[in-house]
Amino acid sequence: MRALKAEEGKGIYLCGGGRLAASLAPEIDELVVKRSPITIGAGIPMFASPVPLQQWRLTDSHTIDIGVTFGTYRRAG
Predict the structure, then answer these.
(1) In terms of residue numbers, what domain contains 57?
(2) What is the CA radius of gyration of the chain?
(3) pTM of the predicted model, to two decimals?
(4) Which of 5, 11, 49, 60 could form a disulfide with 22 if both were Cys (CB 3.0 to 4.6 A apart)?
């Protein structure tokens, strides 16, 4: 993952996959969190196993007309 991040080009995008996200947690620089105004049971965890404590800084937020909100967070510090 570190070698890929060091290459020229666009960033790496991981969508879904709580197990993979947990294994790559130290390499994640940005989170895009989508919130929908519905309830669907227990949901899917963002990280499937415990990850180290990390603080994040909100860098962008927008809501589309159906009420779905996207929050973009960058790793703090």
Answers:
(1) 2-75
(2) 14
(3) 0.80
(4) 49
